[in-house]
Design brief:
The complex is a heterodimer of chains A (about 120) and B (about 240). Chain A has about 120 residues and is mostly helical. Chain A contains four helices and no strands. Chain A has a single domain, classed as Helix Hairpins (Orthogonal Bundle), CATH 1.10.287. In chain A, about 75% of the residues lie in helices and about 0% in strands. In chain A, helix 1 packs antiparallel against helix 2 and helix 2 packs antiparallel against helix 3. In chain A, about 25% of the residues are buried. Chain B is mainly alpha-helical. Chain B folds into two domains: about 120 residues; about 120 residues. Classes of the chains: A mainly alpha (about 120), B mainly alpha (about 240).
Chain lengths: ~120, ~240
């Protein structure tokens, strides 16, 4: 079994760990941390799965060398930027909720939100 | 191609202008609708002349972004323009703040999804669309809207991770992300990793659309702000341990 395959399998395990954290944790900040683990492991997996041994980075006028495809590199860079945007936005939402309810517990936040909505409705 | 760029450009410039000149934001939204209507009309006339077209943006051959104009894409883009018209009539300038900017950006991303024929481009536009729509959910800054936005943001981000893993498998087998090139290279291939990749991509889009049993630990997510969405979505009914 190649080292590449082993690390790919490990990255899938990390994705699973992140998903479990995302499902089981009640703390909103821990949920975001788990989400970040999932996203990072996904990027690691993508990089490993498209890696071809012997390919070189397309830098400089070198002839007779197999260059790596720039498409997955562009995709991974875009994905990192998108994940950063998602994390920033979710932290902003968390900040607003914590400022308002002084807790990170999702059950408590949900209870407050529900009550507030019903009051506004009536 | 010019027609497509005109449509997307009209919505994007409408969004930016409505952010800069707040007094005339409704007029800019109307103008962007006119621009998109012109774009779709040009695209329809081009389609009637020369049939369906697949083009690649840039001068990178198969590495460029594929764009397709056919009956389905025109129908979808036409629906976007028609719905935009009725929405503009319905709101009649009643919305304030950054609503028009976000609304035009949402339409620009929807318009570009309609013409996209590339899995990479689809990933980027879907993410952009979801970010803008989440900002639109919470633009009035009410607590229940922000809570609903945060929940959907987390679940949709997880969904796009599944999509990205599937995309890795598909790229590994097909060697490209343009749908036309992929269709050529994957013809006759029956590999487990390809089926797994496509399955993960569909699962990711299903989770993003809400058609999947996954609640991410939210007890009753989106209970309030997305009631209509919840009807189609068994996800929200689940409760964790």
């Amino acid at each position: 079994m190649s080292a590449n395959l082993i690390v790919s399998a490990i990255s899938i395990v990390i994705v699973c760990v992140g998903v479990i954290g995302l499902i089981l944790k009640r703390n909103l900040l821990l949920k975001l941390l788990s989400l970040n683990i999932v996203n990072t492991a996904t990027i690691l997996f993508f990089v490993l799965i498209v890696y071809k041994p012997g390919d070189r980075a397309p830098i400089g006028p070198v002839t007779g060398v197999q260059f790596a495809d720039p498409l997955p590199q562009a995709l991974v860079l875009t994905s990192i930027v998108i994940n950063f945007g998602v994390l920033a936005l979710s932290l902003l939402f968390t900040m607003v909720l914590v400022k308002r309810y002084h807790t990170l517990d999702l059950r408590k936040i949900e209870g407050f939100v529900k009550r507030e909505f019903e009051e506004e409705k009536s | 191609m010019i027609a497509l760029l005109l449509g997307v450009g009209a919505y994007l410039s409408g969004g930016i202008l409505s952010l800069l000149f707040t007094r005339h934001r409704y007029r800019f939204s109307l103008l962007s609708w006119v621009g998109a209507l012109t774009g779709i009309s040009l695209a329809v006339s081009g389609f009637l002349d020369s049939g369906s077209v697949v083009r690649t943006l840039g001068r990178w051959g198969i590495l460029g972004i594929e764009i397709k104009i056919d009956e389905t894409t025109l129908l979808f883009a036409g629906l976007v323009v028609i719905l935009n018209f009725f929405t503009l009539i319905y709101i009649r300038g009643s919305k304030k703040g950054s609503f028009y900017c976000l609304y035009n950006f949402l339409l620009a991303s929807t318009f570009s999804i309609a013409f996209s024929h590339d899995l990479f481009n689809l990933y980027v536009t879907i993410e952009f669309m979801s970010l803008v729509s989440i900002l639109l959910i919470g633009y009035e800054r009410k607590a229940y809207q922000i809570y609903a936005g945060a929940k959907y943001l987390i679940i949709s981000s997880l969904a796009m991770s599944l999509y990205l893993i599937g995309l890795g498998f598909v790229y590994r087998v097909g060697g490209n992300l343009g749908i036309r090139e992929l269709a050529r290279s994957l013809e006759g291939i029956e590999e487990f990793s390809l089926s797994l990749g496509l399955g993960l991509m569909v699962a990711g889009l299903a989770v993003k659309g809400g058609f999947f049993f996954l609640a991410c630990g939210f007890r009753t997510p989106t209970p309030i702000a997305l009631r209509s969405f919840r009807r189609f979505c068994p996800v929200w009914q689940l409760s964790p341990a």
